Amino acid sequence: MLSRSSMHPDDPILATSLAGLPLRSPLILAAGTAGYLDEMREVLDLSRIGAVVTKSITAEPRDGNPTWRIIESRSGGGMLNAIGLANVGLERFLEHFAPRLASAPTTIIGSIAGFSIDGYVRVAAAMNEIDAIPAVELNVSCPNVHGGVEFGVDPAAMKELTREVRRVLTRTRLFIKLSPIAVGSPSIVDIARAAIDPGGEPAGPNSRPGADALSIANTVPAMAIDPETRRPRLANVTGGLSGPAIHPIAVRLVHEVYRKAAKDTSTPLIGIGGVMRWEDAAEFILAGASAFEMGTALFADPRSPSRVTRGLTAWARRQGVRSISELVGAVSL
Ligand SMILES: Cc1cc2nc3c(=O)[nH]c(=O)nc-3n(C[C@H](O)[C@H](O)[C@H](O)COP(=O)(O)O)c2cc1C
Known about the structure:
Number of helices: 8
CATH architecture: Alpha-Beta Barrel
Bound molecules: flavin mononucleotide
Oligomer: single chain
Strand order of the largest sheet: 3-4-7-8-9-10-15-16
Strand content: 15-25%
């Protein structure tokens, strides 16, 4: 029988660490779904959340795409978005949000997006100067202006970007958020390997040459059409699908990258995609993720992370472990 205290969300059974970064819980709020900092604090006790990933920041401010740029998908509680990386830009982020970071009730992970290597490097170098950002997550699903492809689907571009960003991150951990669309050749495993070992030198004595952790994965490219008007439902024509429909895809990607690239190199993974209930989070952990992010669930119910935290705590107890980290990759095949 579970005691009341063992069900408490602060139970240390959920405490974990990600590339040496201690987290109160493996539950992280996903980029672009929880604001820049602590905007969720009125509905959620952020001190019980492992971390918040900021909206992706680009070197220059961006208005993003015209509307409609978010629609509900009919795939059971999912969303299709083509926000187009609307954000305040680096300068305003440094001015307005950076001074408040240290007083945030949870760990803040800075998300970086860009359209050129220089753009990523500028934002990374600035975030490296901020003590209250212990890790950055690179969103690599943006078009590479040189080659016109996403950095996240081209191993050579992935290596170059990783090397250049790594050079300026002398104190901040580097997490790289992969695209789910590298499914053929090159596969997501090739991209993961490029991010883990891009060649080149580590930035410091204790750092790795490539990513400290990989986030798997971003949204899945998708499209919806209004049959009456015969027009695409998003002004951008296509968008990124998130929510329950992509969860099994992301579980498979985590499992594959864990077995083929991450386990042997001790690279922690963060599972992302369709976590609505504790069972979804447990699947990510069993597939090989050390932590997981929640995004779309926050739109459906901003309090859902509290439920997931409670469910996960009870599950870890039932599994008889002292720490949830003992269950990472523990799927029985
Ligand atoms: C409205 C919206 C905005 C998003 N903005 C970003 C972003 O700025 N940067 C990023 O890396 N991912 C962004 N994402 C993707 C999420 O971080 C996450 O990878 C994706 O939604 C899958 O997780 P989910 O199914 O739990 O939502 C966004 C997703 C949504 C729905």
